[in-house]
Amino acid sequence: MIKALAVYCGANPGHNPEFIQLATQFGHRLADEGIALVYGGGQYGLMGAVANAALDHGGQVHGVITQELYDRGTSLKRLTDLKIVPNMDIRKQAMMDLADGLVALPGGLGTLEEVSEAFSWTAIGDNAKPVALYNFNGFYNPLKSMLGKMQVAGFAESEFVQSINFSESFNEIMQFMDGYQAPEVRTYR
């Protein structure tokens, strides 16, 4: 059962106002379901929207931010708690450690890097937690296609590609996570 969910998403709002609406609705749902939000600690863009929405609905929000970003004044001040860490590698590990599952909403290079690390760690056995991408309006379709190409070309085993959930539904993501069984750790011959 998912009690805390790490959410990766954009520190920018994106050009379509529906992205902010999505993040806000997602934050409301987390709070309404009693699922704590673990995220990057920022106050801007989708990050700020999902955190503020969860807090506004009485949810628990745990931020993990780097010292550099904290010093730039990017952190949200009203969080349940905020951990300040030295660098991005420690931030990603701390978020993964605090969460029972990991999901990416739309975002940019940082979001892609974070969620890619989460599912690549599944293949090497360093992440047994479910990973999902909220595929809002097909946002992550190119990534899904690329993973399929990697599988066909023999660079990604099907059990690892299929262990990543792509969905446009909060309920489907949570069903996937609640029933998730991590694939066996890759072995080398």
What this model shows, in words?
One of its GO terms (cellular component) is cytosol. GO terms for molecular function: hydrolase activity, hydrolyzing N-glycosyl compounds. It is an enzyme of class 3 (hydrolase). Helix 1 runs parallel beside helix 2. By secondary structure, the chain is an alpha/beta fold. The protein has 8 helices and 7 strands, in the order βαβαβαβαβαβααβα. The mean pLDDT is 95. It has helices spanning 17-32, 45-56, 67-71, 88-98, 109-124, 141-152, 158-161, 170-178, and strands at 4-8, 36-39, 61-66, 81-85, 101-104, 131-134, 164-167. It has one domain (4-178): Rossmann fold (3-Layer(aba) Sandwich). A 7-stranded parallel β-sheet has the order 4-3-2-1-5-6-7, with helices on both faces. The protein is 45% helix and 17% strand.
**What is the overall shape?**
globular
- The separation of the N and C termini measures 35 Å
> Mind summarizing the main beta sheet?
7 strands, parallel
By DSSP, the count of extended strands is: 7
Q: What portion of residues belong to β-strands?
A: 15-25%
Précis, in short:
Keywords: Cytokinin biosynthesis, Hydrolase. This protein has one domain (4-178): Rossmann fold, CATH 3.40.50. 45% of the residues lie in helices and 17% in strands.
